[in-house]
Give the backbone structure.
Amino acid sequence: MVNSKLDIESIRKLFPVLHQHVNGKPLIYFDNAATTQKPLSVIQAINNFYEKDNSNIHRGIHTLAERATLAFEATRKTVQQFINSNESEEIIFTKGTTDGINLVAQTFGKANLKAGDEVIISSMEHHSNIVPWQMICEEKGAILKVIPINDAGELLIDGFEKLLSAKTKIVSVVYVSNALGTINPINDIILKAHAVGAKVLIDAAQAVSHLDIDVQQLNCDFLVFSAHKLYGPTGVGILYGKRELLDAMPPYQGGGEMIKEVTFESTTYNDIPYKFEAGTPNIADVVAFKYAIDFVNEIGKTEIRHYENELLKYCVEGFNSIDKSSNHQIIKLYGTAKEKVSVQSFTINGMHHFDAGMMLDAKGIAVRTGHHCTQPLMKYFGIEGTIRASFAVYNTKNEIDVFIEAIDKLVNSKLR
């Protein structure tokens, strides 16, 4: 389907949404950190499920139920192999990253936190990795602590070490910042957290499409991500957890599938993963998610990241050329860490980020503007929000040329 030398035009042909005009201009989609577009194989898989195999799963004995169940569980096995978990039962299907973090906070957190215990997150967390911990800390009387960062958007590991103590029960940190693109030193964080007996949850929502993830090598206790940031459907997410932890955690929701036996007097809960998958799941989109992973595996994460890094470097060079031609800094970059993925946030001096986003949209260029669900991070930098361009394997340098030219025209209009 796709050759090994990254024939980008062949890759682009697999994504129907890219071949359209927006506001009379060819679409340039640079909002991949929010959600990636879907290859035709994923779209067709959803259609095929509803046309041929639509049935509820696990409890039916008829042919459609068996086919649906096999396809659903095939995705679980594919995810297990994709992140190298020890067994497929350690893979829990959720609605997304946010749902996975809430699940851990409301089960593991509720069962293990007490007054005076401490939970550590970082200054660059998405709201979905802040609010659930605030809620459970308030309920349990635990204390939430925050790892500081520097102006490049890098975590201060010395500051993290100072926060750690015997009171630390959970460390929940983002692998890759959605607002800055920073790749955090997750291996080091996990080792230091485990040294004081804390459990570690990794938010891999942004990392999963760029970096190879091996949960056994990382030795993380939990890891969450969303399918829609990995060329898959919306409404599907993954929670990985070590078996001994998942077995010990209470259920998150009650209902069908998560039980073994129900009487009016008591209920016996099902084994993992089903204990955490109450009710009818998002079957069609789970089935289709396998095809998104197959797409990524066929190209290869290493090839994808190498190409995306080239795009990021090319874009930053374009920003620098604008500043050089205007003889002063008019483009302010946020997130200049040495280790990062293809995400670049920036502001234009004298122009509100919303205005810039609307003007770019008029030219068919889709970027994200605002605080990116990282308001504490924006407060650290003393800004309300940024413009964020984020690149995927189907983007091109030609698109970046159009983007930089559009930014240059916005800059020149402000200078006049």
User: Anything to note?
Assistant: The CA atoms of residues 202 and 223 lie 5 Å apart. The first helix runs from residue 8 to 12. The chain has two domains: 8-30+300-415, 43-298. The chain has 14 helices and 17 strands.
